[in-house]
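Sample pair:
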Amino acid sequence: MENNASNVEIVRTNKKKLRDVEEDLET
């Protein structure tokens, strides 16, 4: 299940990036 844990980290990172992009679009 190491791969699954890795995928969770990728999703968290992508969500953080998405939130940063959305904040940039608002300004």
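The two ends are 40 Å apart (CA to CA).
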